[in-house]
Specification:
about 350 residues; alpha+beta; 3 domains; 12 helices; 4 strands
């Protein structure tokens, strides 16, 4: 056993060395810097921050470099590092109405105070490979940026004035903290939104798509999608007031959903909500659709048996780190377990063969 362990250690050390070599790649090519990843692969950085539950672009870029671009591995690294950090306190709730928007669009109202701001988006690109990017050269001259817009109201406030949309659900209770306590059911909306905010983007997207295809009858409009920076404030007891300690970039999505009414609620529009670190439009919209699907019970709707309506199914399978750990553990040695299964199958086969022989003799 001692020899096997030592041999395993040497193999693992060699695997680590080989991994480092593969990560570096061709030594004749300049090494990719953390700053380059942070600035030029910013959407990957944003995803790692969101699903890693830690807002730090530099650390997220470092994790991407260390993981060779495997974003789930990078998210794992960030989550692990996050557990080592001290917690000094909690910030005040952010006010997304005060967001300095780089992008703000609505699919429900054409004319908005502050206007529609397209911002940096792939929505209107041709999805053709740009081979100019393969050539090393000077950066192109930046085009004139759209005028910055000041503080603007949320689009759903226009519907709220006429009483056509439900009041924004508000729970005064202290929300649970999913990063410090394990998930427990039943989960209130605050806990569900936390889980969805750091859920795997692909899983959340698949669930959201299923609601659009009829699995939950969730027909939604994007009431508003906004991306921008929001100040973060923290109350300082010694001073007696809150101070701004920094800014974070967020993507916020509010969906407006058809609702014909139920036994407990009148006909009106209802809401879905998504809020994610960084520029993560696909994730924020997906989160809003799944959030709305999970609200069927509080709105008095019938459960259609759709996956996106099953709180336990959604929340227990949305976390890519938990899923990865359980999936990849089957790569580890299971020699004893397999030998037991092997002996069992041999025994069952022998019993079945003996039974066939007896039947043939009769």
């Amino acid at each position: 056993m001692y020899v096997a362990v030592k041999g395993g250690e040497r193999a693992i050390e060699s695997a680590h060395a080989w991994l480092a070599e593969e990560r570096r790649g061709d030594l004749n090519i300049a090494e990719l810097s953390v700053a380059q990843i942070r600035e030029q692969l910013s959407l990957a950085v944003d995803r790692v921050m969101a699903e890693g539950s830690l807002y730090d672009p530099d650390l997220a870029a470092l994790a991407i470099k260390q993981s060779r671009g495997d974003l789930i591995e990078a998210i794992f690294l960030i989550r692990a590092y996050r557990t080592t950090l001290p917690r000094f306190g909690a910030t005040e709730p952010i006010d997304t109405g005060a967001m300095a928007c780089d992008r703000r669009i609505s699919a429900t109202f054409k004319d908005l105070p502050g206007g529609q701001v397209l911002g940096p988006t792939f929505d209107y690109t041709h999805r053709l490979l740009d081979f100019k990017l393969a050539a090393d050269g000077d950066a192109p001259e930046a085009p004139m940026r759209e005028a910055e817009i000041g503080e603007v109201p949320h689009v759903t406030e226009f519907l709220n004035r006429e009483g056509l949309i439900e009041e924004a659900p508000h729970d005064t209770a202290e929300p649970p903290d999913l990063t410090r306590a394990p998930l427990e059911l039943p989960a209130n909306r605050a806990l569900r939104l936390q889980a969805l905010s750091r859920a795997d983007e692909g899983f959340t997207l698949g669930l959201a798509y299923s609601t659009q295809r009829g699995y939950a009858r969730n027909h939604a409009f994007v009431g508003e999608l906004r991306i921008g920076s929001v100040p973060v404030e923290m109350d300082i007891p010694e001073l007696g007031f809150a101070l701004e300690i920094g800014e974070v970039t967020l993507t916020e999505c509010e969906t407006v959903n058809q609702f014909m009414g139920s036994k407990t609620e009148p006909p009106q529009f209802t809401r879905g909500y998504g809020l994610v670190f960084g520029q993560s439009e696909r994730k924020a919209i997906s989160m809003a659709l799944v959030d709305r699907a999970l609200r069927w019970e509080e709105l008095g709707e019938d459960n259609q048996g759709a996956p996106a309506q099953d709180t336990e199914f959604v929340l227990y399978h949305a976390d890519n780190i938990q899923a990865t750990g359980f999936l990849e553990h089957i790569k580890l040695p299971h020699y004893v377990d397999f030998q037991a299964e092997l002996e069992l199958v041999r025994k069952l086969r022998a019993e079945a063969d003996a039974g066939h022989v007896q039947e043939a003799a009769e």
